[in-house]
Design a protein that fits this description.
Elements lengths: L9 H15 L3 E2 L5 E3 H6 L11 E3 L5 E4 L4 H7 L6 E13 L5 E13 L3 H18 L3 E7 H10 L7 H9 L3 H10 L4 H11 L2 E3 H10 L7 H13 L8 E4 L12 E7 L7 E5 L1 H6 L5 E8 L18 E6 L2 H12 L15 E4 L4 E6 L4 H6 L5 E5 H7 L4 E5 L5 E8 L10 E5 L2 H11 L3 E5 L6 H4 L5 E6 L3 H5 L2 E10 L1 E5 L1 H6 L1 H18 L1
Parallel strand pairs: 1-5, 7-9, 13-15, 13-16, 19-20, 19-21
Antiparallel strand pairs: 2-4, 3-4, 5-6, 6-12, 7-10, 8-9, 10-11, 11-12, 14-15, 16-23, 17-23, 18-21, 18-22
Helix pairs in contact: 1-4, 4-10, 6-7, 7-8, 9-10
């Protein structure tokens, strides 16, 4: 029976193409049940994206779960034996979404495990690139290696327990924050400069090989040698041309070890492919050998429409926050060589273009900037650290613009003494920030979410304290309140969509460099 192309959706066509590709490399199709016993995931929760798992009780009274992960089930069910196992699959998984509901995610992917070496690792990376190319020729695979990052941090004296802070800065491509956090650990200026060169690396395969080999940081560890060996296998191949070495790809360090990668397509705002080495899972499930694999998120592929605004028209799209902060940062963008005179004209327009510079600005509510950037409607934007901390959008935080400087703080009545015998009542519009702050302190709290006039809550007895933005502190003083402690400093940050940073890298990097020069000049 032949099925006409007009019957299949774009994602369905891709699934068939990928299955044919993997089979041609000797991978066998793996079919599994949609359910697992919940106890299996409870024992291996460190290897899940989220602790939240969709469960139900079967007819025998046993607690079951809809699969949140495919790889766990494949490795658990694999038979012990010598050699190498190669399998591919097309399965749906069920994971929490951003709005706290569950989402069904379609995945097609492969796993290679057992006595694997450089050859098999290179093969999987090659198939990852071929998978992207089967969907669109406008693609890039970002390749990283956690072992290289850890080897570097180890030589700098950063202990494993302290590395999460560095990982976060590297993932955001925030060189300022990398420098600051390494300095906090007593690393010398010379060592910091060399480390930042590696940790912010974003080059093609050949360039990355030269940079890593020329680096003063020794690459003598076995894991670092393996990464270079894999890069050399990729060099000069058609697939290697679409690979970019980028250490901002870190992901879940509990799940992955060694080589890790993400795939991007122009027109889709988030990664469509994710994978890497997961030897730790093999050890946890008492399986011999090593493992590597990846999944393509085929449900995202329906975004690739010819009329999609995400495909772009050659303009750099910039989301600016309405108000005084937006006006201040626009002046920086103009001084950086990206002016748009019509933006300063009196009008009710919301979108402004400079055709000569190919830049487009639009005003949005400050708390919405991250939404426009994360979803790819804006390539770059400016958002306060308060918004980034509260909503944790999946964007790059490229630069601290040093504008709109203030702080997130805990405040309460003057002379307030915390009664530890009961939960602390906290009023705030930054609920996630407050929860995280007090969770780290081990303090039980009762969150009272408000949307405005936060300072009045402790005055009227609604709360004991507040967590809010403090600028001058005048409002607090006039209402007999005071800052109890600072949560973190706040300022405006230059952010970028992750896909835009890949496909508009030259102009985004140019803008970032110009803004950084302005920030340094003003200090």
């Amino acid at each position: 029976m032949r099925i006409g192309d007009n019957v299949l959706q774009a994602s369905e066509k891709v699934v068939f193409a990928l299955r044919e590709l993997y089979a041609s490399y000797g991978y066998g199709f793996y079919r599994m049940s949609k359910f697992e016993e919940y106890d299996f995931y409870a024992k291996n929760k460190d290897f899940l994206v989220s602790d939240n798992v969709l469960t139900f009780t079967d007819t025998n009274g046993k607690l079951m779960a809809l699969k949140p992960d495919v790889t766990l089930s494949i490795i658990k069910s694999s038979e012990e034996g010598e050699g190498i196992r190669r399998v591919f699959y097309s399965e749906n998984v069920y994971r929490p979404s951003a709005n706290d509901s569950f989402k069904e995610i379609m995945q097609t992917g492969l796993e290679c495990f057992g006595a694997i070496g450089e050859k098999e690792v290179t093969e999987v990376i090659t198939l990852a690139v071929k998978s992207l190319s089967a969907i669109s020729s406008d693609c890039v695979l970002d390749l990283s290696d956690l072992s290289v990052i850890d080897a570097l941090l180890g030589k700098l004296g950063v202990l494993p327990a302290d590395r999460r802070r560095i990982y976060e800065a590297v993932e955001s491509k925030n060189s300022q924050e990398i420098e600051k956090r390494l300095a906090d650990f007593g690393v010398s200026e010379k060592e910091i400069a060399e480390a930042v060169k590696i940790l912010t690396l974003s080059e093609g395969v050949e360039g990355a090989i030269r940079t890593l080999e020329e680096s003063a940081v020794s690459m003598g560890e076995d894991a670092c040698k393996e990464f270079l060996a894999v890069l050399k296998r990729l060099a000069g191949t058609p697939e290697g041309e679409r690979v970019r070495v980028d250490f901002s790809v870190i992901g879940d360090v509990n799940y992955y070890n060694g080589i890790i990668f993400k795939g991007f397509l122009r027109g889709i705002p988030s990664p469509v492919l994710s994978g890497g080495r997961y030897d730790n899972l093999m050890k946890k499930l008492r399986k011999k050998g090593r493992a590597i694999g990846f999944a393509v998120y085929t449900d995202l592929l329906d975004l690739l429409r010819e009329d999609s605004p995400l495909l772009g028209d050659g303009y750099l799209n910039v989301a600016l926050p309405k108000g005084r902060l937006g006006e201040k940062v626009y002046s920086m963008f103009a001084a950086a060589g990206f002016p748009c005179p019509s933006l300063l004209e009196e009008s009710r327009k919301l979108v402004f273009e400079n055709e000569e510079k190919k830049v487009r600005y639009f005003w949005v509510k400050p708390s919405d900037v991250t939404i426009y950037v994360e979803r790819g409607i804006a390539d770059v934007g400016v958002a306060g650290k308060d918004i980034l901390a509260e909503y944790e959008p999946d964007v790059y935080e490229l630069l601290d613009l040093k504008k709109g400087v203030c702080r997130m703080a805990v405040a309460g009545p003057k002379g307030f003494i915390d009664d530890k015998s009961r939960p602390l009542r906290v009023a705030t519009k930054f609920s996630e920030v407050a929860k995280d702050f007090y969770r780290k302190k081990g303090r039980e709290i009762d969150i009272i979410h408000l949307n405005g006039s936060i300072e009045i809550a402790p005055i009227l007895g609604l709360s004991d304290v507040i967590v809010d933005i403090v600028e001058t502190g005048t409002t607090l003083r006039e209402n007999n309140l005071e800052v109890i402690e600072t949560v973190f400093p706040i300022s405006a940050r230059f952010i970028a969509n992750k896909t835009s940073q890949k496909f508009k890298k030259e102009i985004v990097d140019e803008l970032r460099a110009s803004l950084a020069a302005l920030v340094e000049k003003e200090q």
